[in-house]
Amino acid sequence: MATLTDPHLSLVRPVTPRTPGGCEECLILGSEWVHLRLCLTCGHVGCCDSSPLRHARAHAFAVGHPIVQSYEPGEDWRWCYVDETFV
What we know:
The chain is α+β, with helices and mostly antiparallel strands. It has helices at residues 24-29, 55-63, and strands at 36-39, 45-47, 67-70, 78-80, 85-86. The chain has a single domain (7-86), classed as 2-Layer Sandwich (Herpes Virus-1).
């Protein structure tokens, strides 16, 4: 379980969503998504694990940015893909 001393939290930065209108890859592909996640290292917006293409998880492991925040209105939780836990 991630803690406040979890080294992954050191990767969190102030970010601006790169594609505020939706999942970056899905917008290019014309694919649909279920929910969105915001990478807290670079601002990538990706689709969640319930979405067909799971771009947020793919981004996290491809570039080593493990912590995302929900990009859904009214939600502010964070998730670490490496530890598979809320942070």
